[in-house]
Amino acid sequence: MKRPGALFQPVLELLAALGRRFHFLAVSVTLIPSVLGRPRSFIEQLFYLGSVSVILIAVGGLFVGLVLTLQFYSALSRFGATSSLGGLVTLALLRELGPVLTALLFAGRAGTSLASELGLMRATRQIDAMEVMAVDPMRRVVAPRFLAGLLAMPLLAGIFSAMGVLGSYLIGIKMMGLDPGVFWSSMRHEVSFHSDFMNGMVKSLIFGVACSLISLYEGFHARPTAEGVGRATTRSVVISSMTILALDFLLTSLMF
Amino acid sequence: MGHRTKNHAPVRSPPSVPGLPAPSGRTTIRLVDVHFGYGSRSVFTGLDLIVPEGQITAVLGPSGSGKSTLLELMTGQKTASRGRVEVAGEEVGSLSRRELFRLRRRMGVLFQDGALFTDLSVFENVAFPVREHTRLPEMLVHHLALMKLETVGLRGASTLYPAQLSGGMARRVALARSIVLDPQIMFYDEPLVGLDPIAKGMILRLIVHLNRSLGITSVIVSHDVPEMLETADWCYLIAEGRVQGAGSPSSLRQVTSPWVRQFVSGSAEGPVPFHYPARDYAADLFGTGRSA
């Protein structure tokens, strides 16, 4: 017969794992001022994370805009409401698809890059070398990457949505022959800066925190073996994706 | 025991660990009755060890005997489950993270594979600790890094990246990085592993040069017995969680302990078994039981 305490063991382990991640998050956040004091590494990381993801995000946004417009046009034309196309596509992009798909693409591209970089630093003892040099790896390695990831996400989501709108414009105006004035005025009429654009940006910021934290945590605590680094990289993308989808549901129910 | 000192000089009186020959002079590092293990596997079961100031101390032992773990205990990367580890008069296990970092600024560590930062050039690797710990003008950082690279003979490789270096060169760059802030204590983790005889000679010459010219207390963990007996002032042989022999290189050669004799002579026959513990061979081959 199991001890009564054993029944709660998985719950306790889950709470402990969450506690370790929140502690990691708290330390990363408290180190942000020190990163801003020496901004060079943060700027390098922001440039790196942005540059590795921007092409993927831009192309992704463009195609999502193209496909979305085709689908919406087909549905709206049945009701003679194609004049709402611009507004509808932009709302979908700003509120949902921009933040969520950007975060998923970021987790697959930049997140895995962060996790494998830190995992390899652990495996090749570069993190140990910093420790024995009396250099805090959380301050020197984790905090600049955390801040860069957190800020890169809204910027990339903005690019994703802008490219989506461009794709929608190309299909709607150039291919379907909609009036450009109607397209843009529908967008202006339907989309609110505060409740749509800003809420989308807040979502992206929160996804940025989650994605960066998970990738950095998994990489930093990777087992120092080839298998450990591979596992950390995989875990970072799986956990990030699940977290983004769960957070999206939570945030959408709170915001809209 | 374990009192703190604000000055950098070691203050311990000559060591006196019972049952061991003791090196002469002042003590920089002292381990007393240290126990440590990974889960259920014990690595140290009452280890006593003393490192004299300004000398080269070699810790020898077979693979898996815990030599690298011993260094990690000394540098505070791991904490003993029992016993005391004192470095420069400070008890490492009781230090806060801030105090530990303050102590580590007086240490240098050469890792087995160098542990160079792969995204930084050779020059940037050597300049890294200076930039992190000082606010020196860029010109002085430049001079300091180049001087250390000149010491290890790699000033000409300053623009290369770690991926472009041979194993011996990477080890020398890592050595330059670890001495750039003039540490008082140097730890070398298997400094000769994987090197050709010329590179081995270079590293050994540098270790001796740094020790003799700067008076750095040096601790080398290695299983290269002949090289260490040539280089070290004092040697420890560890196995099975304890110190099995200690003394100057010449005295170790005279020790009659079968374990020490087997290790020093590199013989396959002796108390160190060739086989990992296993159940009866015949039973494994023909018996009813199943092997793992």
Structure characterization notes:
The complex is a heterodimer of chains A (256) and B (292). With 256 residues, chain A is mostly helical. Chain A has one domain (40-255). Chain A has helices at residues 4-7, 9-30, 32-37, 40-78, 85-123, 126-132, 137-175, 180-190, 193-220, 226-255. In chain A, helix 4 (40-78) packs antiparallel against helix 5, helix 5 (85-123) runs antiparallel to helix 7 (137-175) and helix 5 (85-123) runs parallel beside helix 9 (193-220). By secondary structure, chain B is an alpha/beta fold. In chain B, the strands form two sheets. Chain B has a six-stranded mixed sheet, with helices on both faces. In chain B, a hairpin with a 2-residue loop joins strand 1 (27-38) and strand 2 (41-52). Chain A binds chain B through residues 120, 124-126, 128-129, 131-136, 140, and chain B through 75, 77, 101-102, 104-105, 107, 109, 111, 113, 115-118, 128-129, 132-133.
For the structure shown, list the relevant keywords:
heterodimer, A: 256 residues, mainly alpha, elongated, B: 292 residues, alpha/beta, six-stranded mixed beta sheet, four-stranded antiparallel beta sheet, 10 strands, 22% strand, globular, disordered N terminus
Measured by DSSP, the beta-strand proportion of chain A falls in under 5%
- The average pLDDT of chain B is 85
- Percent helix among the residues of chain B? 25-40%
Q: Work out the radius of gyration of chain B.
A: 21 Å
Please mark out the parts of chain A with pLDDT under 50 across 5 or more consecutive residues, or reply none. Answer: none
Q: How much is the radius of gyration of chain A in Å? A: 21 Å
Topology:
The complex is a heterodimer of chains A (256) and B (292).
Chain A: H1 4-7, H2 9-30, H3 32-37, H4 40-78, H5 85-123, H6 126-132, H7 137-175, H8 180-190, H9 193-220, H10 226-255
Helix pairs in contact in A: 4-5, 4-7, 5-7, 5-8, 5-9, 5-10, 7-9, 9-10
Chain B: E1 27-38, E2 41-52, E3 56-60, H1 67-74, E4 82-87, E5 90-91, H2 97-104, E6 107-110, H3 122-133, H4 138-151, H5 167-179, E7 185-189, H6 197-214, E8 217-222, H7 225-231, E9 234-239, E10 242-247, H8 249-254, H9 258-265, H10 281-286
Parallel strand pairs in B: 3-8, 3-9, 6-7, 7-8
Antiparallel strand pairs in B: 1-2, 1-4, 4-5, 9-10
Helix pairs in contact in B: 3-4, 3-5, 4-5
